[in-house]
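Sequence in, structure out.
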Amino acid sequence: MSQGQLQDKIAIVTGGAAGFGEGIVRLYVAEGARVVIADLDATKGEALAAELGSAARFCRCDVSSGSDVQALVQTCVAAFGVPDIVVNNAGTTHANQPMLNVDEATFDRMFAVNVKSIFHMAHAVVPRMRERGQGGVILNVGSTAGIRPRPGLTWYNGSKGAVNLLSKSMAVELGPDRIRVNAICPVIGETGLLEKFMGVPDTPENRARFIATIPLGRMSRPSDVAATALFLASDAAGFLTGIEMPVDGGRTV
């Protein structure tokens, strides 16, 4: 039997119990990795870990909390070892609406989950990766929203613009440590956040308006994002760092 592309690698995937994160977790395990699933939803996370068996662990984590993220990384180290791969996938949004209608608490929570989480994770994993001396991979799930913003999502667009640019800056700074950092930028996807992104009910008619802006004629799927996350974490992408990889069916062209 041929070995998987991530054989014997250790990974952390935040927001790993559903949506894009679940797709990444499932593919990583299938490709030979041991994965710690981080999520706020303990019911889904524990069920997924149980289904995947000894190659998976669940750790409840609020990625906006520095102490939670430190505990998450410590859980990974105790269960499997220092992570080779970290996927900062957890994210949230405000409902599609005029920018001045979004309240401050919603803004603060979104930037804490989407942006500050990367700050916390860097503090938790980069020293361990450096100490081990074997490099590593950090993947930040940004968005096409940070490249070609849609109206009604101004503050969300800004948070993902920060993720995209942080990824490039981290790549430059961590390159000498052989820690590769890339951003994955999905277009609007078939996930639990879809209605918030659209700002209208999830009906075939409303989906069609968004799909009309995507040349390949459909929304992104967890399998699309997972395949990209697999490639960027694998040795095949060993010379790729600091890129924004659109997974968008041509939306940002």
